[in-house]
Amino acid sequence: MFNLDPRLAGDTLLVGELPLCRVLLMNDAQYPWLILVPRLADVVELTDLSDTDYQRYCTESRAVAKAMLEVYPDAKLNIAALGNVVSQLHIHHVARFNNDAAWPGPIWGKHPAIPYDPEQANALVKQFQTQLSIKEGS
User: Fold this and answer.
1) What is 34-100 written as a DSSP string?
2) What pLDDT is attached to residue 109?
3) Where in this chain does the entry annotate a coiled-coil region (predicted)?
4) What is the pTM of this model?
5) Domain at 6-131, CATH from 3.40.50.720, 3.30.300.30, 3.40.50.11310, 3.30.428.10
6) Pairing with 111, which of 53, 69, 85, 104 sits 20 to 30 Å away (CA)?
């Protein structure tokens, strides 16, 4: 049974569900940042996915990347699967800009998160739901 890691749950807002993955918005207004988490139990590494699920994961990651570039066409997209703190498999999709708070360095550990205000978060979630053809509340 799939359970989202509590740290991911606490740091993110739900965008919705794709066929394999849950799409989450990192609640940090400094960096536009989506996270894909496959809804499968006990998956830590990409190699834990079946060939079919791996292909689906890649397809969904590409769709998220395209959606982010539609919303932020001037961004340099950073895509990474890190697991040093949260071992549950998840892929970060971060839009970077040469004037963001951590540029040109990595975003992790640079600055404390600045949560979105509720209206801004809701608007961004809806925008990504539209881009990804996710029904609200899925």
Assistant:
1) EEEEES-TT--SGGGS-HHHHHHHHHHHHHHHHHHHHH-TTPEEEEE---SS--S--EEEEEE-TTS
2) 82
3) none
4) 0.94
5) 3.30.428.10
6) 69
